[in-house]
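ugh ok fine here u go
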Amino acid sequence: MAQKVTVPEIIKMKRAGHKITALTAYDYSFARILDDAGIDILLVGDSLGSVVQGQATTLPVTLEEMLYHTRIAARGRARALLVGDMLFLSYQVNIEEAKRNAGRFLSEAGAEAVKLEGGVEMQATIRAIVDIGIPVMGHVGLTPQSLHRFGGYKVQGKDKKAGERIVRDALAVEEGGAFAVILEGIPVDLAREITRRLTIPTIGIGAGVECDGQVLVVHDMLGLFDMYQPKFVKRYADLKGIMTDAVKRYIAEVKDGSFPDEEHSFH
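structure:
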């Protein structure tokens, strides 16, 4: 088996100039496939609210649901670093609750780190979680849990003032002790500036090629979820089309009596 990916290894990758790869995973089967393929980071994202549960946003996802999906993804993970996504209101209420909930991702669900959204306003929370031995990945720019404040899923940091605020957020995440930060939905030039200023890795999603790594929702990049396709998503496969064709052939063979045949029957 290849060497286990750890938090120190992720930090070293930036220093060595090695790009970091990350994808979401929500269950055993997907985690095992992505892990076997060599992905560096598996993120059990609250994006499961959309691509698994069929919700309009990530906000309705519960802590117990996140812990469940992290737990079953952990069973398929052998090499990758497994990061659990702290959902809405699991860390914003107070620091003690944030520490307790972060700890549950490790002790109950098998995660090796947690991710939370926010910059300057979350710096103390990040520091408190890190101080009890839990690695934290930050997330700034377009933060989906704040979509109502943004007025929807819109690119952030397009003007100078907004860009400076995101830079401050990213620096606050690093100063809080996070080992990496996701940059989502921001202009390429801004992502480049942040990546150059931080000593921790930046993981981009809709933030251009100059981040230290990239993350995508696996259902998006495999063509399994097609309710919408963000500009930053590249479809590497059309698994929905492949699955639809397979199901149609199964239906046809059952209806015409050609399945099961002798090869697939017992005597």
